[in-house]
């Protein structure tokens, strides 16, 4: 079994280390901040203890996992690693510097992976002598619980590195999807309209947060409404991802951030973690009641789901991933009740098209433009799945 290196012992690095050690690998975790490293060690110990209490692990397995995980305070320990996953601060200069330092330590066949959410793999690899060994391996938070991992080859990544990485992460019990090195990869791109269109509906005064959340849960079967979910993710993180996807797509109108969320972010109303976001989580404050008007609820659901489906169709058209991987990404990465292309078949492409076309005519805005693939499929009377 190859030795795995994890760099960055924050939320993601600690979780990924647990996954790799649980799969039997020796894992070396490094952080340039000693207190973050100590914290990670303590968190791993507590997590494993809880898993024993819940009878998900035996005492012995938990000890083995812990003993297989080593915490190192310098990079020389990474010498014998077969794969290193970087999960440090989301800053291109810092990541590039780290990757070129690593190349001087590791052997030629060591895969260098980044867990970046928003930076391009091509840019991270660009400082390396062997960019063909650099790949994106994007876990979701919390890594031990979320099944999805996006595998993102950069423009120069060797095909053998892609196969090897995919097989390895599959062997850790994860669901891998292969996607292109484009902003937001699959999940963080396709999911944007769940938030963006919902905020737009709110900004136009059609419904309040509670009503929009109710509509998406009641008529769409989503586990969390968009505003509950943004408060859960954190409005700082969610806003920054939106802004990053929008700017990296050269200010594509479909991804345009909203002032509503920007103000929340500026006011540090991050959501659950700060006690207030779209909702107020202070003790004793009741959650607002939705307006359970069925016609309004169905209108909201129809509009948001049509935008989500349009993005998934456009992503498929632009060969971001296979249709199966696009659907898996949304069900396994963000718990959607169905894959969006499967959902498109169920709702009927003509209905999705009609919803978007009405909005496009009404607003004269590019964000509502139906994907060209939708038009072509309608012309040929096609479905995504037989
Ligand atoms: N948090 C999420 O929900 C999430 C999900 C998927 C991917 N990611 C990505 O994973 C990466 C890490 O995110 P996180 O949430 O775990 O961050 P975090 O802030 O919790 O942890 C980052 C850790 O990296 C360490 N670090 C910073 N610079 C370093 C360096 N040069 N060398 C070694 N260690 C360094 C910090 O001390 C810190 O402990 C980012 O690229 C982020 O975009 C985050």
Question: What tags apply to this protein structure?
Answer:
globular; binds nicotinamide-adenine-dinucleotide; alpha/beta; 8-stranded mixed beta sheet
Architecture overview:
The protein is α/β, with parallel strands linked by helices and 386 residues long. It folds into two domains: 3-178, Rossmann fold (3-Layer(aba) Sandwich); 186-386, N-(1-d-carboxylethyl)-l-norvaline Dehydrogenase, domain 2, CATH 1.10.1040.50. The protein is 51% helix and 10% strand. It has helices at residues 11-22, 34-53, 59-68, 92-103, 121-125, 159-171, 187-190, 192-203, 209-220, 226-233, 235-248, 259-266, 294-317, 323-333, 340-347, 349-363, 372-379; strands spanning 3-7, 27-30, 69-72, 81-86, 111-114, 134-139, 148-153, 175-178. Helix 5 links the parallel strand 5 (111-114) and strand 6 (134-139). Helix 13 (294-317) crosses helix 16 (349-363). The chain is globular and about 60 Å long. It binds nicotinamide-adenine-dinucleotide.
Quick structural gist:
Helix content is 51%, strand content 10%. The chain has 386 residues and is α/β, with parallel strands linked by helices.
Low-confidence stretches: none
Strand ordering within the main sheet: 3-2-1-4-5-6-7-8
Identify the CATH class of the largest domain: Mainly Alpha
Question: In terms of structural class, how would the helical and strand content be classed?
Answer: alpha/beta
The total count of strands amounts to 8
Helical content class: 40-55%
* CATH level-two architecture of the largest domain: Orthogonal Bundle
Q: Provide the number of structural domains.
A: 2
Radius of gyration: 22 Å
């Amino acid at each position: 079994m190859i030795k795995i290196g994890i760099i960055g012992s924050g939320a993601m690095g600690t979780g990924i280390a647990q996954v790799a050690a649980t799969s039997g690998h020796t894992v070396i975790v490094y952080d340039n901040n000693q207190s973050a490293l100590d914290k990670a060690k303590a968190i791993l110990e507590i997590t494993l203890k809880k898993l024993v209490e819940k009878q998900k692990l035996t005492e012995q397995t938990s000890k083995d996992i812990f003993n297989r995980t080593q915490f190192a305070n310098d990079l020389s320990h990474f010498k014998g690693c077969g794969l290193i996953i970087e999960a440090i601060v989301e800053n291109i200069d810092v990541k590039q510097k780290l990757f070129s330092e690593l190349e001087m330590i590791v052997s030629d066949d060591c895969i260098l992976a980044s867990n970046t959410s928003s930076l391009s793999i091509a840019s991270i690899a660009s400082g390396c002598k062997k960019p063909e060994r650099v790949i994106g391996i994007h876990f979701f938070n919390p890594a031990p619980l979320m099944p999805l991992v996006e595998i993102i080859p950069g423009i120069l990544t060797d095909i053998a590195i892609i196969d090897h990485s995919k097989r390895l992460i599959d062997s850790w019990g994860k669901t891998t999807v292969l996607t292109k090195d484009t902003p937001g990869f699959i999940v963080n791109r396709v999911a944007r309209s769940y938030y963006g269109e919902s905020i737009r509906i709110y900004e136009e005064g059609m419904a309040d947060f509670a009503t929009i959340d109710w509509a998406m849960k009641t008529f769409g079967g989503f586990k969390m409404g968009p505003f509950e979910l943004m408060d859960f993710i954190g409005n700082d993180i969610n806003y920054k991802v939106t802004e990053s996807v929008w700017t990296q797509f050269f200010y594509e109108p479909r991804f345009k951030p909203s002032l509503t969320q920007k103000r929340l972010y500026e006011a540090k109303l991050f959501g659950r973690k700060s006690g207030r976001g779209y909702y107020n989580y202070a003790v004793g404050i009741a959650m607002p009641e939705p307006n359970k008007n069925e016609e309004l609820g169905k209108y909201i659901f129809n509009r948001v789901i049509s935008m989500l489906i349009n993005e998934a169709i456009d992503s498929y058209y632009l060969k971001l991933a296979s249709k199966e991987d696009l659907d898996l990404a949304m069900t396994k990465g963000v718990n959607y009740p169905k894959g969006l292309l499967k959902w498109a078949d169920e709702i009927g492409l003509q209905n999705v098209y009609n919803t978007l076309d009405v909005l496009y005519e009404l607003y004269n805005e590019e964000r509502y433009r139906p994907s060209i693939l939708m038009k072509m499929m309608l012309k040929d009377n096609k479905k995504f799945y037989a």
